[in-house]
Structures are given as C-alpha cells and as structure tokens.
Amino acid sequence: MKSKLLRKLGPLLLGAAFAAELSLPSNVRAEELRIGFVAPTTGIFAQVGKDMVDGFQLYLDEHGNKLGGADVKFIVEDEQGKPDTAVTKAKKLVLQDKVHMFIGGLLASSGYAMAPVSSAEKTLYIASVPAADDLTQRQLDKYPYFIRTSWSSSQPHHPLGQWACDQGYKKIVSIAADYAFGYEVAGGFQKAFEDCGGKIVQKIWPPLGTKDFGPYIPTIKQDADAIFSLMVGPMSLQFPKQLRGAGYKKPILGGGTSYDEFALPFMGDEVVGDVSSLHYSAAIQTPKNEAFVKAYRAKYGKVPSYYSENNYTTAQWIDEAMTKAGGKWPGPEQFIKIMQGLKIDAVRGPVSMDDMRNPIENIYIKKVEKKEMFGYDKPELWNTVIKTYPDVSQFWTYGKEKFLAQPVYSRDFPPCKFCE
Amino acid sequence: MGTQRIKILIVAVILVALALIVPKSGSFVVLLATRAMAFAIVAMSLDILLGFTGLASLGQAAYFGVGAYLCAVLATKFHFGLGWDFWIVVVLGILIGMALAAIFGLFAIRASGVYFLMITLALGQCVWGLAYRWNSLTGGDNGINMSGRPNFGLDLSNEVTFFYLVLAFFTVSLLLLYLLVRSPFGKSLAGIRERELRMQILGYNTWLHKYIAFIIAGGFGGLAGVLWAQTNGHVSPETVVLTTSVDALLMVVLGGAGTLVGGAIGAAIVFGLREYLSTLVPWWQYVLGGVYVLTILYLPTGLMGIPERIRQARARSKKEPSQSGDAKKLASVPS
C-alpha cells in the first residue's frame, strides 16, 4: 500500500521539485542593465519583429554590448502579435528577469496593453514602435512610466496634408485601412489639408487585410486631384498595383506604412513617383544614415526599415541617458527625466522629447524613385526625400492645448464636410 | 466505482498541490497558472459539447469574448465591478454568455457535424466583427484597458490572491461540470453523442437536450471571459478571434475529449509550451506542433487516454497465458 502511494505521489513530487527550481532567483549583478525587448518573432509579424530586434542588436554590437558603461543583458521575448501575450511577456520580464525597462511592442493594441503593466509594476516602458496617438496625448497621465521614442500616428501626416495643399491639390479622396491606426493617419492628413483650404471629398475604409480592391477602385471620385492612401502590410503591395492597373493616372500620396522600406523591395515600378511621409527614410542623404544603412545591410542583408531605425535610436537614447546618469541605473522617474532632457543626433536626424514624452523630430516628405544609392550597383526603389519639415511635434502647429481639446481622430472625426 | 474514487482523489490532490506549490514558485509561474486555469474553464465548457454531446463547436470564443468585454466595459465606462460588485459582474458574465448561447443555439443546434462546426464558426466571427468594428463601445482593435483589479476587502491586484480566486472558480466549475455529466441529464447527452436517433425513439427531446447543453457551455464560457479580462487587464478583438476557439478545441482534443480534466490538462500544456517554453527557446513552436501531431497519431483519445491504453495493454498480456474467459475481457473494456 505504501509503495503504491509512493508510486502515485512520485510524479507529483517531481513536479514540485521542478516548480521549486523555477522559482530560484536569477543571478543579479549590480552593474548590469537588464533590458527586456518584446517583439513578435513568430507569427505573421515575425519579419517586422526581426527588423525591430536587429535594429537594437546592431547598436549593441557596435558598442560592445554596453550602454552608458553598463553591461547590457538583452532579453528578447516573443509577443506573437497578440496583446494578451505581450502583457504576459512584459510581466515575465519584470517579475522573473527583474528588468530595468522593457521596450517594444509592434501594434498599437500591444502598446495599449503593455502601458498599464508599466504603471502597475512601476517599470519603465519605452514604446519604440507602437504609434497610437493617445498613448502620449489624452491618456498619458495614466502611464507615468511610459515614454515613446518613435512617433505618433498622425505626427508625420499633418505635414503631408500641408504639403499636399502647397502643391495646389484642391480635392483629395482618402482611402485608409479601417482601424484605429488608419483613422489617426487619415485624420491627421485631413485636418492639416482642410485647415489649409483643401477638401477631402470622399473617405473609403477598406477592412484591414483587404487584398482585392476591385470593389473600391471604381467608386473613387474621378474629379479629385489626387488620392491619399494608408495601407499596411500586404495591402501596401496590392493597392497601388491594382489602382494603376485600373488606369488611374493622378498622383497618389501615402501614409508612412504605405511605402515604408519594409514594403518597398517587394513593389514594382508602378509606385515610382508616389509620395509619402514618415520620420525616417533609408534614403536620407547624411553620412550617419549612409553608414547605418551600409552596416545594417551588410549584417542582415536588407535595407533597414523605420522599425530598425527606431530601435537603433532607442538604444542610442538609452546609451546617452545612461552615460549622463554615470553608468548607474537612476530609477525609472529619473531616467525618463534624463531622456526628456537629451537632444539626440540620431540616424533619422536631430530628435528631442516634448513634455508629453513623444519625440520632436524631422518629418520627411518622400518620393519613390528608382535609382542607385550609397554605392550599391543596382537601381532600386528608394524613398528620396523631397522636403524636410524640421522639428515637428505631435501637435503640429496647433499647440498642445488646442490640439488636446479635440477628440482623438476616428472614423467620424474630423467629419467629412465635403463628402456628398 | 472504486477507480472513479481514485480518479477524484488524484484530481483533488493535484488541486491542493497547485494551491500549495504555485504561489511559491515565482510570480511568472503564478501568472501563467492563473491564465491557464481561466482558459481551462472555456476548454472544459467546450468539452461538454465536444466530448459529452458530440458537437464540435468552433465558436466558443464568442461567449468567452462577451464575458470579457462585459467585464471591461462595465469597469471602464461605468466603474462597476471594482469592489464587492465584482460578484455581480461574475453573475452577469455567466448570464450574458448563456443569453448569447441561447440565441446562437437556435441557429446552430439544428445542424450537426461539419455543418454545426461551420455555423458556430460563422456566429463566432460575428462577435469578433462586432468587437472589431464597434469602436465606441469596444475601442476597436486597440481594445479596452482596465485600470486595475477589484478590491473587496480581498485585494485582487495581488497576483497570488487572484490566483487563489481563479483556482477556486476553476475548482467549482470542474465540480459543477462533473456533477452535470454524472447526472441523468449528462447521461442522456452521452446517449445523444452515441446515437441520437435511438434517443429520439426512446422519447427524448434531443434538440432540447443539446440546446440546454449549449447554453450551459456558453455560461461557463462567459465566466471564463470575466476572469480572463481581469487576468490580463486588457481585452481586445484578439480575445474573440477564431484562433481562440481553435485553441480551446485543440486543448480539449490534446487532453482527451469527454474527460473534463482533459481540457484543463490541454490548457496547461499549451500555455506551458507557448508562454513558458517560448521564454526559453525560439523553437517552441516545433515542440507544440510535435505534441499535436504525436497526440493525433498515437493517442486519438488524448493524454487522458494513456492510463486506459496501459490497462488494455496489461489486460491483453495477462489474458494470453491465463485464458480466463470473456468476463475479464469485458471488464477491461471502457464502459
């Protein structure tokens, strides 16, 4: 009987031993800076996740795995493109690995999901990609341990609206992916364009992941001067191809992700001449960017996207902040203050932080051109910068108070006054 | 009856062991165990349909989702359910899951087999579509962030306290579902699974039986949703998406359909591999895939089928020398 009981309990005891072993505290050394990095490394966003990790890793490799004198323990966790998993992994990084900060997240939903973890665990969260406007606008006060080193969705698209107006476009049709990021991008463009005197005469919202634009293209109003499109992922590749294939000759403007370096290598010559805006282009003509593109391409075999640059610059930002803190972790509140006080000479250009913890940075209006760049011997598609708007904040020219008084951009805001 | 008692004892010992060991094994393990148990309730509710009634549903995430969204919307829009009224939210979550299942059941129960699967899939996607597009209520794809867990004397923001609460809900759910499948009602569900026509001839209203089982499963789905929302502090359309339903189905099949605890074991394994192993190695997906393939190939009755297989193998090897006749052979066949 006793042996029978033992036999039954044996596996349980084993399990207990296993669980106890899991609980051993990890080795903690004083001079170590532990950085958790949450990115999708499996699933449909795995390639974007790779760009994110590679960008950060490149900076670490170039600096002997040290940031501001501290040895970095860089822990990558897979969020699988799901906000639930992002939360679990962020908590794992904080609770088990005792990280000083966690970085990353890809989708706005992951950013929104992880920000409360930073508040609850009193740990710094640096959003190096998630762009949801309200994270650094109307909801910022909920997240005192949150800071963003990338961009807010509408930030590059206010200047694009202004630019479109300056080109003399009077009427534009907007076609944008039907989700929050699409609303914020298209909303920013519409706001600036209409404030300057332009008219958005039609708004079309194809669902996220649309591959066949056949039902939408014939409905586009023919009397418009141009089209503004916001596409993401595979949509970016399909839309211009199908629109040009349908015989559309007028200019196409695009939100940042419609033509970013992630989509560009897979596009055909039909996109040459299309104009988009973002806070980074791989074709910025500065020695710093050229060196970055060459180093990145030599190591990873592809042109860096803004996902790569954002994380590279995040590493740089942490590096300079740690240097200023004397190589010792000063605690999250102090670290945010230091980060806010820095002016970074980044790959994308000069960057600083506004008082709502979102970067003030150059916004580039870019035109797709086929040419040879940086000594590469094949003509390729590049986002040539045709105009730079320096030091653009997330509030554009509206001023913080006035901007925050309006609701966040949505399907119905700004209202389509000139639609029939 | 004796083996049944031993089984209950084993489950009880495991639950007690969980209660004792998990809180001491690091906060991340506590978090994972909480998530796995909250999700295990959905898996078990699905087992009522799949394992006991023979209805393979691909829409269980719908009830899970409405429970989660109800909890999140009440907490953020109405500040309801942050104190003792959390218990009202639990009841409402169960009711909304049941109500939705009562509506969906009218469409789904008339069909069976693949048709039932497709209808539940379509209905589940309707809920996903609502969650995704109804921006003013659900926040669209950004989802809803909750500001913290309820505190009613018991502070649930403490992970260990919350773990015990979920463990309690899990235990009670397991007990209720166990009583359900052992009841005459549960037996008639098994009868429908084995041969629906015969049950009809015997005078059972099989449609009503299936409908009620569907509603009960929906109720437990709603309960799990409420717990899930509190576990993550965040609800998004990802909670309601098709893969959540598929996950639940895979967990039940992995653990063993028609065993109740099989769903829980499946949940533990899937969460363990997907969320614990993925922190250790990048090739965790191969392990998960391998487990699925091996289970389907060698254990069509799931992991819970292992003891039965061993017993059968033993009985076979015993039978050959002793020739003890048919009575023993019958006893070794699962009833």
Helices and strands in order:
The complex is a heterodimer of chains A (420) and B (335).
Chain A: H1 2-22, E1 32-39, H2 46-62, E2 66-67, E3 70-78, H3 83-95, E4 101-104, H4 108-121, E5 124-127, E6 146-148, H5 157-166, E7 171-176, H6 180-195, E8 199-204, E9 226-230, H7 234-245, E10 252-254, E11 275-278, H8 287-300, H9 306-324, H10 332-341, E12 344-346, E13 349-353, E14 359-371, E15 380-392, H11 400-405
Helix pairs in contact in A: 2-9, 3-4, 5-6
Chain B: H1 2-21, H2 27-53, H3 60-77, H4 86-108, H5 113-133, H6 135-138, E1 144-145, E2 151-152, E3 154-155, H7 159-182, H8 184-194, H9 196-201, H10 206-232, E4 234-235, H11 242-255, H12 261-280, H13 284-298, H14 306-322, H15 326-332
Antiparallel strand pairs in B: 1-4, 2-3
Helix pairs in contact in B: 2-7, 2-10, 2-11, 2-12, 3-4, 3-5, 3-10, 4-10, 7-8, 8-10, 11-12, 12-13
Structure overview:
The complex is a heterodimer of chains A (420) and B (335). Chain A is an alpha/beta fold. Chain A has two domains: 32-153 and 287-353, Rossmann fold (3-Layer(aba) Sandwich); 157-278 and 362-405, Rossmann fold (3-Layer(aba) Sandwich). Chain A is built from eleven helices and 15 strands. Chain A has helices at residues 2-22, 46-62, 83-95, 108-121, 157-166, 180-195, 234-245, 287-300, 306-324, 332-341, 400-405, and strands at 32-39, 66-67, 70-78, 101-104, 124-127, 146-148, 171-176, 199-204, 226-230, 252-254, 275-278, 344-346, 349-353, 359-371, 380-392. In chain A, α2 (46-62) packs parallel to α9 (306-324), α3 packs parallel to α4 (108-121) and α5 (157-166) packs parallel to α6. Chain B has 335 residues and is mainly alpha-helical. In chain B, the strands form two sheets. Chain B has a two-stranded antiparallel ribbon with strand order 1-4. In chain B, a hairpin with a 1-residue loop joins β2 (151-152) and β3 (154-155). The longest helix of chain B has 27 residues, at 27-53. Chain B starts with a helix and ends with a helix. Classes of the chains: A alpha/beta (420), B mainly alpha (335). Chain A binds chain B through residues 8-9, 12, 15-16, 19-20, 22-23, 41-42, 77-78, 80, 82-85, 87-89, 91-92, 95-96, 107-109, 112-113, 115-117, 120, 132, 142, 178-180, 208, 410-411, and chain B through 10, 13-14, 17, 21-22, 24-29, 31-32, 35, 132-133, 135, 139-143, 145-148, 157, 232-234, 236, 238-239, 274-275, 278-279, 282, 285.
